Amino acid sequence: MKLAKRLILTTAAFAAVAAGTLSSASVGLAASSQPAGAGVDAPAALKVPDGNRLTGVFSAAGVQTYTCTDGAWKLLEPAATLWAKKDRSHRPVALHSRGPVWVSTRDGSAVNATAVANSPKAGTIPELLLQATATRGTGIFADVSYIQRLNTHGGVAPTTACTGTDQVSVPYSATYAFYKPAK
User: Fold this and answer.
1) Following CA atoms 33, 35, 40, 42 in sequence, which dihedral angle do they give, to the nearest 10 degrees?
2) Comparing C-alpha atoms, which of 21, 3, 6, 9 is closest to residue 173?
3) Distance between CA atoms of 9 and 67, rounded to whole angstroms?
4) Distance CA 51, CA 2 (A)
5) Which domain holds residue 144?
6) What would the pLDDT profile of 30-75 be if each residue is shown by its tens digit?
């Protein structure tokens, strides 16, 4: 059931992009030899620690799903698709979902993370610095150490009251920057 729900949310994200309510504009892949912070504009609070290098930057479009808990909207899960600008086919690079986790649609590698810092932005979900808690596989997300969620738009929980087990999905877009330890 959970997988079916995530697939529906991801399908909803694709539909939103196709309808023009979310942008699939991408920022492309960064060179793997760049030091932390190079190539991305991030608030000081979201600086990646020294000793890490930028390995990929992707645009994302999807939804932030909220559920009613004790009369207030609480984040249930994100569901987003990530793209790379240099891929003219617009084939997804990864899917992002509850965990949070990012899973490559190209090689099956994955990274789980937890937020370690945030930078609030008016009218949108905050920008985040996330630290990897686990990785799997040998592909694009192998050995990822940090992730930045930047350039956020939308995704804010409703301010209206809720009842029961209501759920609502709010469109959002962001840029995700992935880092690995410098070698």
Assistant:
1) 160
2) 21
3) 14
4) 37
5) 2-181
6) 333 344 445 688 999 999 999 999 999 999 999 999 999 999 999 9
Distance CA(18)–CA(26), nearest Å, equals 15
The answer to whether the predicted template modeling score (pTM) of the entire model surpasses 0.85 is no
Q: Is 99 left (phi over 0), alpha (psi -120 to 50) or beta?
A: left
**Integer CA distances (angstroms), 64 to 91, 133, 134, in order:** 22, 21, 22
The encoded tokens of residue 182 equal: 């410098």
Which residue shows structure tokens 């649609």?
105
Could you tell me which residues are beta bridge partners of residue 134?
112
Q: How many domains does the chain have?
A: 1
DSSP annotation of 32 reads T
Confidence class for position 91, pLDDT limits 50, 70, 90: confident
Contact 140, 94 (CB under 8 A): yes
Which element (helix H / strand E) includes 30?
Answer: none
